[in-house]
Design a protein that fits this description.
CATH architecture of the largest domain: 3-Layer(aba) Sandwich
Number of domains: 2
Distance between the termini: 32 Å
Largest sheet: 6 strands, antiparallel
CATH superfamily of the largest domain: Transcriptional regulator MraZ domain
Number of helices: 5
Structural class: alpha+beta
Strand order of the largest sheet: 1-7-8-4-3-5
Radius of gyration: 18 Å
Shape: globular
Order of helices and strands: EEEEHHEEHEEHH
Length: about 160
């Protein structure tokens, strides 16, 4: 399963956000892990993806001395298992809301990010990805294999061809 798309929602007064219908595959257990993610957002993982991606790694780190245990603690302390209610809302825990600058009663950008769903404060999203999105749409063609790529053209020119 992969998550794609961008959706504009809001956090409700209780700090909950709706998971868009197109991003619900994989969340049938009605649980998710919400994590503080390095780029400044809150990342939402299915239980299966979180276990595959992080649990085994944290267990290995925990056996690698003090530094490994510290990294395992950091990983686990920045992650929280949450329930998804009947209306497909999940509560973004306070620590992850604060990290991602998400406020109740305010907009949130919900992004399908292939292996996860990301929750972004709109201004932070625009500042971080506005330029990348512009470059993608006006000057980078990532939609062809490396050996097929004609780096002299742009994505926009390819669309017009």
């Amino acid at each position: 399963m992969s998550f794609v798309g961008l959706y504009d929602f809001s956090l409700d007064p209780k700090g909950r956000v709706v998971i868009p219908a197109r991003l619900r595959d994989g969340f049938e257990t009605k649980q998710a892990y919400v994590c503080s993610f390095p780029e400044g957002c809150a990342a939402v993982f299915t239980v299966a993806e979180f276990n595959r991606r992080f649990l085994a790694r944290a267990m290995r780190l925990d056996r690698q001395g003090q530094e490994g245990r510290d990294l395992a603690r950091a990983l686990s302390s920045q992650s929280q298992l949450v329930d998804i209610d009947a209306q497909w809302r999940l509560t973004v825990p306070p620590r992850q809301r604060s990290f991602a600058l998400l406020e109740p009663n305010n907009p949130v950008v919900v992004v399908g990010a292939i292996s996860r769903v990301e929750l972004w404060q709109p201004e932070r999203w625009d500042a971080r990805f506005g330029r990348a999105n512009e470059k993608l749409l006006n000057g980078t063609d990532i939609f062809v294999d490396d050996d097929e790529a004609d780096l002299s053209g742009t994505f926009a020119e390819a669309l017009q061809a």
